[in-house]
Amino acid sequence: MKKSTRPLFVFAGGGSGGHLYPALAVAAELQLLVSDAEFLFLCSAREVDLRILSHAAAQNPRISWFAVAGSRGASGITRVTEPLRLGLECLRAIVRLRGRHPVAVLGIGARASVAGCLAARILGLPLILLESNVFPGAATRCLSRLAVACLTGLPVEAAAVGGLRCPVLQTGVPVRGVISALHGELYLAEPARPRLLVLGGSQGAQSVNQLVLDALTSDGITGPVLPDDWEIVHQSGESGLERVREGYLRLGLSVRVESYLGDMSSELRAATLVVSRAGAVTLAELACGRRPALLLPLSTAAGNHQWRNARYFASAGAGELVDTGAADISKTGAAVQLRGLLRDLSRDADRRQRMSVAAARLAVPDAATSAAAAVLEIAMRQG
């Protein structure tokens, strides 16, 4: 492979927007600092990675990507075959990187990051980890033994800091520029038309879809859950699109249901209240957008990290945590709790305003800038 004369930054990992969007935000800031830089993403073969990175590469010719790791849930994976599979993935990453002399390799989390990070270690390249959650994932904890630094997003729980075996620097969760810019807008006042925004995330959207539909079902005694002047925008995910639309029709509600909302800055700007999963990136975007939220943590998230993220957000008064511990099996209890919160908050503007102010205090709108500056400084020091 022909050696590039431009500085190359490599991002290893993926599997969800929560891993890729912060990396792309850091890449955008690095490009401002190093104008001729190029960016290579060693990702997984999951559809979400291919969609996000294909779009990013189409928008920016300095970005390229290569699927090193397989998709989650690949058949035939056992404790015996996994080391072989990981070895082959690592070999693919080494072949992709050898001779290109990257400035640094950034591990962005999940199993998909392991091969690229191991390749960095084998090739003697500086390895820097990006970890957004309050409880670092297993990949981050394991790879921290090989890394020169870990840049964290939400404040890492004190009990979890010891699991990171490299220097730790909290820079905040990097978010896209169009989202971070929301924090600078002076609009603490709510939109003129009250709107509920429902976000399922790239994982677990189907259970959020059903839980929200269950919660919006009137109990027939106390009247409608939301006042009549409220509108709803619901991001359902591709597989749940028609089912959610039909569900709202059965409830007699006219709702805008989309499989994916591309312009999230506009959606947040127009939202009065948000129902969402509790991924770190989502919480960082809600904080920048100053939006109060009802948080439905994904109960199957590794290390229960979404519940831990949501607890941090709720303890600051920026959101309300809905107990979804058994929601993927029986949604009755969570639906009742969510219904009560929707009914109360949709009728209490003062409470929403207090939550909005609390969310704004948690925002770190310059996180991507800080992370990019730290990456460049560490890489130069290591070089």
Question: What would your notes on this structure say?
Answer:
The chain has 15 helices and 13 strands. With 383 residues, the protein is α/β, with parallel strands linked by helices. The protein folds into two domains: 8-175 and 365-382, Rossmann fold (3-Layer(aba) Sandwich); 180-362, Glycogen Phosphorylase B (Rossmann fold). The strands form two sheets. A seven-stranded parallel sheet has the order 3-2-1-4-5-6-7, with helices on both faces. Strand 11 (273-276), helix 11 and strand 12 form a beta-alpha-beta unit.
Distance between the termini: 22 Å
Q: What is the CATH topology classification name of the largest domain? A: Rossmann fold
Major β-sheet profile: 7 strands, parallel
What is the radius of gyration? Answer: 21 Å
State the helix count.
15
Task: Using the 3D structure, state the CATH architecture of the largest domain.
Answer: 3-Layer(aba) Sandwich
Q: What is the number of E strands?
A: 13
SSE blueprint:
Elements: E1 8-12, H1 17-33, E2 38-44, H2 47-59, E3 63-69, H3 81-97, E4 104-107, H4 114-122, E5 127-131, H5 138-143, E6 149-152, H6 158-161, E7 168-170, H7 177-180, E8 195-199, H8 205-215, E9 231-235, H9 241-250, E10 256-258, H10 264-270, E11 273-276, H11 280-289, E12 293-295, H12 305-315, E13 319-321, H13 332-345, H14 349-362, H15 367-382
Name a few traits of the molecule.
6-stranded parallel β-sheet, elongated, 13 strands, 383 residues, Rossmann fold, 7-stranded parallel β-sheet, alpha/beta, 2 domains
